[in-house]
């Protein structure tokens, strides 16, 4: 046990937080397995889940996905590409977009929320969910959405999101209320803080300081120096910069935030029919392979100042790489099991957000049949089955699983 | 050319396996003997000349691949994870070892005198055929789907479209890591008999010809082409290319697809030399005999479209001529 605690302490920086926390036993297991390098047990389990995804024959296919994703979260505390979580979430979410019965299943909505947290444009995705009617009866959907607004400092929209949830009758109501109250409390506290910081005297619409003079107190209260504060830190964060009230007399002037009075018509999150996908954000920091001879490196001369080295003129004809050139790796002696870790990151090809892919897929599904009839190609194998999940399968593997199931059925029948 | 079913140059093997055929392999020194492994959990040895089954041995579960070590020893592995060596003279079984998951491929490397197995447990294991015992386990990045030997080099095709080239004399590191130049799942890799490159086939009707030499001039020669596609009502049906076998003398190769066709290709002139008639169902495995006079064709449904009814499985032996297998001199 003592060893286990040390393990946990040593790698806690790498453990991704989960909404629902982690089972400490699973965490121990995952970390010890990683330390010992015994990934084969994990791989076998993963393989078993992948097979189950494909071979599932009941009427609740979401169950396997749900369990698989929860298992991945617990087994790969560091997250990252190795776990395949992002891919899996996207697949899971897309798989059931047509299944109306899951649209307000709390497990499906949970998957959506996890998926959304991985997206670069969570608000768009929530809007998309609303337009599709996914999670509109689930309290967790509104809570997650409101949190996203609050994170951006838009507590008004956060509040109206809750209102929308109440209007739709999202379940469970008490949970929604609990979170709504918590939001209101935070907003109140923020209002208070910012009000206290503000000059409360109304006559002075433009508080100012005289330059190069002593600070003189203005207004009724003697102790407060007029400081120009922007009111904009309202809703900056969740009331973390709570300050002591400066004087008891201020209480009389404290405004209680009341969304019903101040904004008689709270802005509803707009129900759009979502005609066009949002524009994919331009990628930053994207370096493309370039000619080396064009690169200029500042060099320090002997005298300490920087000179720019002239680009060396090659005396030979440099080879121009063909775009389809396969990466040929120089042999190097490192353990083949681990040397994938430091491999260079491939240039990111897809300039699509997950959401855009989602929408394209939907459109594609509708068009697919027509396209196939027109001029397309038809794959003569169970393509969907081989490619669902994170890893690919061959038909031999699926057949092997069918064989195994038949065998175990036979064994059961005999016993 | 020879596009019609002639019948005189081809026959069906008697006493074929009771379930799908996973692999056919000819003896290394005679075109008389053929090994056939099957999903009925057996490996059978056939006398091709006499069209009869000589011997049969059992595994605990379906067998996915088999190979000759020498003319009197067969090696095989499958879903029971076990690697078996069978003495064909004495009909004696030896369990040589095991993988942690089903064994997908079994090959022999003559130059290094080592048996090689690849498995869905993401490893390749080497086996000393004389003792016999395990001679090393080498982790691959993903499940092994296919492997082939080019001289003293080993080409491994795994899930995730990865291709790894190992030096069998020095397995300390991976010599080359590549990505398949085809977009879809790798089905089969076979090395050129001249050891300069390999042919890779994918699950979506495409074949790539690649070279091992990493230099640019050589790499420029690589190419890929579409095949095993059928037009039906204006819709192109794309079939998996499951099998490749090289003609040992001419360096030409045959491909077999789930469309039931067998094509022979001239990789130097980038030409198809011939196409045989359509076989009853998917081509699961192909093997040229050592002298290149015979081609064994396993026509066997592989459940590409699920567990549905299908034509019976069979192995056909076809006599091939130089006209069908020799590159056209220009």
TrEMBL record, chain A:
GO cellular component, one term: nucleus
Taxonomy, superkingdom: Eukaryota
Basic and acidic residues biased stretches: 262-271, 281-290, 348-363
One of the protein's GO biological processes: mitotic spindle assembly checkpoint signaling
InterPro entries linked: Bub1/Mad3, Mad3/Bub1_I
Residue numbers spanned by region Disordered: 197-217, 262-290, 345-379
Domain BUB1 N-terminal: 49-208
GO molecular function, one term: protein kinase activity
Protein name: BUB1 N-terminal domain-containing protein
Native source organism of the sequence: Silurus meridionalis (Southern catfish)
TrEMBL record, chain B:
Record keywords, A-Z: Cell cycle, Cell division, Centromere, Chromosome, Chromosome partition, Kinetochore, Meiosis, Mitosis, Nucleus, Repeat, WD repeat
Pfam families in the record: WD40 (PF00400)
Cellular component GO terms held in the UniProt record: kinetochore; nucleus
WD repeat start and end residues: 14-56, 96-128, 241-266
InterPro entries assigned: WD40/YVTN_repeat-like_dom_sf, WD40_PAC1, WD40_repeat_dom_sf, WD40_rpt
GO biological process entries: cell division; chromosome segregation; meiotic cell cycle
Compartment(s) of residence: Chromosome, Centromere, Kinetochore; Nucleus
Keyword Chloroplast assigned: no
Family: Belongs to the WD repeat BUB3 family.
Name assigned to this protein: Mitotic checkpoint protein BUB3
Native source organism of the sequence: Silurus meridionalis (Southern catfish)
Origin organism lineage: Eukaryota, Metazoa, Chordata, Craniata, Vertebrata
């Amino acid at each position: 046990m003592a060893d286990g605690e040390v393990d946990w302490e040593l790698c806690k920086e790498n453990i991704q937080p989960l909404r629902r926390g982690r089972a400490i036993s699973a965490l121990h297991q995952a970390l010890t397995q990683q330390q010992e390098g015994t990934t084969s047990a994990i791989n076998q389990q993963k393989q078993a889940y992948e097979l189950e995804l494909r071979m599932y024959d009941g009427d609740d296919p979401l169950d396997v996905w749900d369990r698989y994703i929860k298992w991945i979260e617990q087994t790969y505390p560091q997250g990252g590409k190795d776990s395949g979580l992002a891919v899996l979430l996207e697949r899971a979410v897309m798989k059931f977009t047509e299944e109306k019965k899951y649209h307000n299943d709390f497990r499906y909505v949970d998957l959506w929320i996890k998926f959304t947290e991985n997206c670069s444009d969570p608000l768009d995705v929530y809007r998309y969910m609303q337009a599709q009617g996914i999670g509109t009866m689930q309290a967790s959907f509104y809570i997650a959405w409101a949190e996203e607004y609050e994170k951006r400092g838009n507590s008004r929209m956060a509040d109206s999101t809750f209102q929308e949830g109440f209007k739709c009758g999202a379940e469970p109501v008490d949970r929604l209320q609990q979170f709504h109250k918590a939001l209101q409390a935070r907003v109140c506290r923020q209002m208070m803080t910012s009000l206290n910081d503000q000059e409360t005297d109304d006559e002075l619409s433009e508080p100012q300081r005289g330059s190069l003079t002593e600070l003189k107190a203005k207004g009724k209260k003697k102790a407060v120096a007029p400081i120009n504060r922007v009111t904009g830190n309202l809703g900056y964060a969740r009331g973390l910069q709570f300050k002591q009230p400066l004087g008891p007399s201020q209480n009389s002037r404290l405004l209680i935030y009341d969304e019903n009075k101040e904004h008689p018509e709270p802005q509803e999150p707009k129900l759009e029919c979502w005609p066009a996908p949002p524009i994919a954000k331009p990628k930053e920091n994207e370096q493309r392979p370039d000619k080396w001879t064009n690169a200029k490196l500042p060099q320090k001369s002997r005298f300490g100042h920087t000179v720019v080295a002239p680009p060396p003129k090659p005396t030979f004809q440099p080879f121009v790489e063909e775009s389809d050139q396969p990466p040929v790796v120089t042999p190097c002696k490192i353990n083949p099991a681990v040397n994938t870790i430091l491999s260079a990151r491939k240039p990111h090809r897809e300039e699509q957000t997950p959401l855009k892919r989602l929408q394209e897929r939907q459109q594609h599904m509708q068009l697919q049949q027509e396209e196939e009839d027109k001029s397309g190609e038809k794959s003569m194998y169970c393509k969907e089955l081989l490619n669902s999940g994170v890893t690919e399968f061959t038909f031999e593997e699926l057949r092997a699983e069918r064989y195994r199931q038949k065998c175990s059925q036979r064994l059961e029948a005999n016993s | 050319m020879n596009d019609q079913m002639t019948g005189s140059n081809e026959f069906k093997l008697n006493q074929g396996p009771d379930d799908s055929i996973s692999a056919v392999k000819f003896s290394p020194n005679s075109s008389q003997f053929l090994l056939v492994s099957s999903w009925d959990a057996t490996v059978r040895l056939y006398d091709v000349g006499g069209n009869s089954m000589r011997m049969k041995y059992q595994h605990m579960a379906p067998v996915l691949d088999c190979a000759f070590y020498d003319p009197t020893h067969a090696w095989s592995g499958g879903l029971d994870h076990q690697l078996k060596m069978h003495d064909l003279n004495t009909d004696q079984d030896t369990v040589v070892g095991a993988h942690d998951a089903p064994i997908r491929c079994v090959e022999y490397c003559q130059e290094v005198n080592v048996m090689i197995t690849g498995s869905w447990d993401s490893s390749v294991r080497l086996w000393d055929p004389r003792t016999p015992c395990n001679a090393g386990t080498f982790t691959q990045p993903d499940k092994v789907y296919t492997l082939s030997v080019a001289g003293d080099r080993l080409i491994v095709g795994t899930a995730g479209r990865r291709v790894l080239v190992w030096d069998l004399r020095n397995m300390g590191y991976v010599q080359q890591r590549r990505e398949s130049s085809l977009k879809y799942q790798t089905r089969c890799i076979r090395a050129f008999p001249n050891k300069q490159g390999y042919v890779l086939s994918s699950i979506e009707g495409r074949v790539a010809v690649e070279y091992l030499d990493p230099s640019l001039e050589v790499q420029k020669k690589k190419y890929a082409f579409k095949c095993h596609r059928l037009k039906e009502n204006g819709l192109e049906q794309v079939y998996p290319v499951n099998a490749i076998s090289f003609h040992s003398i001419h360096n030409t190769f045959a491909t077999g697809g789930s469309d039931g066709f067998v094509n022979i290709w001239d990789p130097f002139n980038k030409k198809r030399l011939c196409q045989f008639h359509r076989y009853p169902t998917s081509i699961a495995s192909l093997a040229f005999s050592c002298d290149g006079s015979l081609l064994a064709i396993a026509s066997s449904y592989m459940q590409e479209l699920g567990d549905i009814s299908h034509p019976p499985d069979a192995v056909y032996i076809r006599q091939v001529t130089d006209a069908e297998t020799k590159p056209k001199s220009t």
